[in-house]
Specification:
GH; alpha-L-fucosidase activity; Glycoside hydrolase family 29 N-terminal domain-containing protein; mainly alpha; 3 helices; Glyco_hydro_29_N; about 0% strand
């Protein structure tokens, strides 16, 4: 196990973080952020949130 590094919420601290080589070479990436729209009782149109967020115009 490697030594765990300590990061601060600053730009300088983030610049010290190296991206893993396997992530740079990845051909496909899937990222989904859980937000308010993921709460089932939030409303009937909540599932369309990402569609409208990225729609042009």
């Amino acid at each position: 196990m490697s030594k765990q590094e300590h990061y601060e919420p600053t730009w300088n601290s983030l610049k010290k973080h190296r991206t893993p080589e396997w992530l740079d070479d990845a051909k496909l990436g899937i990222y989904y952020h859980w937000g308010v729209y993921s709460v089932p009782a939030c409303g009937p149109n909540v599932s369309w949130y990402p569609f409208w967020m990225y729609r042009k115009g």
